[in-house]
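If you are new to this repository, start here. Below is one unmodified record pulled from the training split, so you can see the exact layout before writing a loader.
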Amino acid sequence: MPGDILSGATLLVVDDEEIVRDFFVEALARRAIKTLTCSDGVEARDLLETTPADMVITDVRMPNMDGMELLRHIIGFHPTMPVIMLTAYATIENAVEAMRTGAFDYLTKPVTDLKQLDIVLNRAMQHRILLVENQQLRGELTERYRFDRLVGPGPRMQRIFELLDTVAPTQATILVQGASGTGKELVARAIHYNSPRAKGPFIKVNCAAMPEGLIESELFGHERGAFTGAIRTTQGKFAAAHGGTMLLDEIGELPLGLQAKLLRILQEHEFQRVGSTETVKADFRLVATSNIDLEKAVAEDRFRQDLFYRLNVIPIKIPLLCERRDDIPVLAYHFLRRYTRMHGREIERISDQAMRYLVNAPWPGNVRELENAIERAVVMCRGDKLELSDFFITEQAPPATEQPSITAIEPSEGRVLSLAELEKQHILQTLRLQNEHRAQTARMLGISIRTLRNKLNEYRRAGEEI
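And here is the target side for that same chain:
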């Protein structure tokens, strides 16, 4: 049968009756399924140590080791292997116990409906494929977010990585603060994938992106008919995070009214859906991020003090990119490797002049802006190394012999520029290069259009002609 997922699959049949084992071998031979057989659970357990199988059909009642004990062993040591229980004692109690323990399905003896057997095996194999793919994906994510894979060789980031290595295996609530583009979400994901909850869900909620009227329903779920448009019951994000990690991104934007409800769920790990009086329990680990100073928000009565103390168990402050310039060359080459692979380019290095520009630029959009700049340069580059001109999309790019217009020293006055002056210079230069196109300028800087608008208004009030 073309495209048959059972073709070539290996099925282990475990039953103390030889006639039952022979039935499955003969019935499945026509499907090109390789069938292995064992007479009890001990024999099956030992066989699985050396011989791979895709699925198991096992009798419940057998000598030496029964089917339920074998099921528990397989769940512990072969978690991607679906187990189908086989029993002549077809009772609801047997079926419920097996399914609660983790069996994929069950069949009753004698098996006479080959079509039904086919359906069960197809479903089990599809489940097996999904489990294997999920396990591979989680392995890739765990590898990607290993702490020693996070880029930042400078002393400030290394101290942060050491702290993360200490706190990730715990259940402690973590508050990550830093400006937009510094990598707060990357840190949150690394915490999850280096914790005992790595196999559980990672649920992210952007508190700044949801309308105030919907955020409570989004977080806690709602009952059908709780409000206009609530056509079905939803579980909510906290329930979805059960057994895993909940990331509340930009928590400083959470309305004050919801902050009290959030405090309760952090204390009790229980909540009620909108429109319901039933209490729901959820086991999750909370990581919160904020790009505003929450202590200042508390002083201004924009954030609850008790909630801040509850969140601030393990505080982590991510520095601005301009505060860790030693990391820029390593980050630049990290992004160069990523985007040369993505765009199929063969670019091996960054010129000295281009690197001086990267190290000296103020980067108001932080790591995100640097990443965008490297990708843009990779796309624009026509040689085997990134030149200064590759970082500027203009009709006439600056000559490679010129120094970048943004430097740490202003030659005409011989004075050191402040970070604010460097940032203003960089933003205004990018705006000019983009012909005053604000949306494109914000995108290139890696900041929001609202942040750009606020900066320009600030410069205009200070007397800058824009």
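Two things worth knowing about this chain: The CA atoms of residues 296 and 302 lie 9 Å apart. The chain has three domains: 10-140, 150-319, 322-461.
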